[in-house]
Amino acid sequence: MRVGVHTSIAGALENAAHHAKKIGCDTFQMFSGNPRGWRSKDPSPEDCERFKDARGRHALGPVVIHDNYLINLASADAAIRQKSIAAFRGELLRALALGADFLVTHPGAAKGGTASAAVLTCVESLCRSADGMRLTGLTILIENTAGQGTVIGRTFEEVAEIIQGASRHLPMGACIDTAHSFAAGYPIHRVRGLTETIKKLEATVGLKNVRVIHSNDSKTAFGSHADRHEHIGRGHIGAEAFGRIVRHPRLRGIPFICETPIDRPGDDRRNIGTMRRLAGGVTRGKR
Q1: Which of 26, 42, 130, 181 is spaced 20 to 30 Å from 100 by Cα?
Q2: What pLDDT, on a 0 to 100 scale, did the predictor assign at position 283?
């Protein structure tokens, strides 16, 4: 099992790799720029080389970049969509320059339109963002959502439709978030529920296309459609369920990345430790 966390680029891009190594990660996720702004400074060639050197020296992989939170590739608003396409193109260029393996994006929201139209808009926007680019070595991952408001991607079917539509032109895959799945109504906290969810994931997205798992417990209840992450084992999914998830033979070969809170110094290291203990333990749980 490869496990890591989302790490900070504060001070320098390579600091994300250094921190990941320090706390015992095998893999890590990061932002490549400002996560809450439309524009980000492009890294210099020297910045990129220092980052790639640190990543290689620490033998960390895969490297995952998460795009910024303002991007809405499914927007029915032409101005927002244009800004999102330009911002996502910048994310692609930075990910390529840094030698990242995956770029994770939320599919967006359908405010002002229907979910089916938003799915098609997302596909078109993804393709326009990468127009004329060669994404050698980089795969775009669509992340499932908790289903809050008008966001799309709540169901595996919607995630699969986006992947299938864009994969005609782009290297595509999925990032499945445990907290989002639970909040969206997939009963991964139960023995049979996890089995059913994995079958559904195989029948829609295809497990071979699930390249990263965001491993997060949930502060909110099952089916809440609220996206609030909790420390592993301390939320409504629970430690027993996470033990089954990380030990499942169809899942344990996929990299797990925690996006859990930092309430106290060392929380990221503790969540990694919890994941590894659960991967080696034996538990009994709800059916």
Answers
A1: 181
A2: 40
